[in-house]
Amino acid sequence: MNENMRMRLGFSPPANKNKAYFRIYLPLVAPKVYPPGCGNGRTSSKRCCSGYVPAAACSGIVLACLLAFTLQIFFFSPISPDVLELPLAVTSSDLFPTNSYLQSVIKLGEGLLKGPEDVCVDRNGVLYTASRDGWIKRLHRNGTWENWKFIDSHTLLGLTITTTKDHQNDDLIACDTEKGLLKVSEEAGAKVLASHVNGSKISFADDVIAASDGNLYFSVASTKFGPEDWYLDLLEAKPHGQLLKYDPSLNETSILLDGLGFANGVALSRDEDYLVVCETWKFRCIKYWLKGKSKGETEIFIENLPGGPDNINLAPDGSFWVALVQLSSRGLEFVHTSKATKHLIASFPKMIKVFIPIDKKATVVNVAPNGNIIRKFDDPTGNVMSLVTSALEFDDNLYLGSLNSNFIGKLPLKNYPNPAVQQHGTHKD
Ligand SMILES: [Ca+2]
Ligand SMILES: [Ca+2]
Known about the structure:
single chain; four-stranded antiparallel β-sheet; 9 helices; binds calcium ion; Strictosidine synthase
């Protein structure tokens, strides 16, 4: 390699010949040494590297390429990652062996729906979901589907129904990952309720729940990365999630919690004294107290979940249904120990499937108010129900949303009763 080429590649001998000097620069300036049979290097032969290029220069070029590759990865990486110690491997699978109950779901609206991520039910028992085709669709009690409102948004996630006292003006509230929090009403259609908080645009709103006093509590999965880049948020492992509150009487949005690990599902307790917020890549859900002596404080509700918690819904008996995205914690344990691996994956997204595989398997868990798992339903192969993102109990049926399906799954719960109720006649915490 001549001096010009060295300069083009940006190499010059450092003033202090440190380790880097010997590793990177020395091979480029070392005397040319040719393999036996290559004479002075002018002999053209495959054995002589590229015929003319000396062996030391070959290794120099390789090293230069490696250096450029490394610089590309570290200096242009979209993340500034932290290492993360995940909790010990989940043991709940010992208590709840994998089953195939979710393979028995009845498919509702098959083919009419596209990736129905969340579901909600109004006081008349009409079920709503947002389809990726821009429609909010609803299922009437007589079994007919209706294209209810065209929102012209493919980025709707969590839904809820407001519960006004007279039930005259109940609206559907939806999280739009681009616009923020939307109100969708029968007469007026869609209106943005909250698009900014503290002067910053709300992006990646994920799930919402309405309290009986009209307040809306909703999550922002990440203030740094959008839905397409969810894996960057996970790789960075810095908590960019938020829990927000929208007060309709003041038309104000405020931040209740900051620094959540991918804030996802949000649910209210039966007495509305606390919220439960899911942190997907932390494999846990936390409680945020709204009332009582602990008001404003947080505590762990459930951790070491056997999957990343997505949406969460209150069940009529006061327990919660949590949909679990089947992130493989085995792969993540390794990734979270190495910042270099994180930079590498962030720079080459095709490696995500290798290092952060999401199984097709579907799992939902029923969690008691004390944080104990009561029931667990799976589709171990994902052949019927895969990537379940929400589970809502209504009229003794479980309704399952999925970003990977073209239907809503319906599971009659009478076939899978709560064992605590079976044994004791009443629900026990
Ligand atoms: Ca929801
Ligand atoms: Ca969600």
